[in-house]
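Model it.
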Amino acid sequence: MRRRIEELQQEQALYFDVDIREDFLSTRLAALLWLVVEPAHLDQTGRAIARHPEVPFAAATTGHTNLLISARFRGTRHLYHYITARLTGLPGIRSLETSHIVGRFKQAGPATLGLSGSPGHPGQPAQSG
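Modeled.
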């Protein structure tokens, strides 16, 4: 089984996401950043940003902006430093918009099928349906 999982990971057919409780992290401020990046620099800049420890999610998009970043910060000073010091050294960034996330209604989490005999949350019995 272990060998097969390793094969699937090497083929990039299987990967793992980790969902961590926010109160466990030392960050208090979640923000979305929308960037306009020159197309010639989009891949390079996007990949560089994806390696930043503040950024759990980054994606190239279409529309008015072409790079979306979801990021976590210790506070507004950390966010300010990130924008004014960390992002300024990256090529092709034309503009940036930010929004603080003040509350979440839904986000990724453990999947439960809700079918009879199917597994539920760890530590919870399977739901009947």
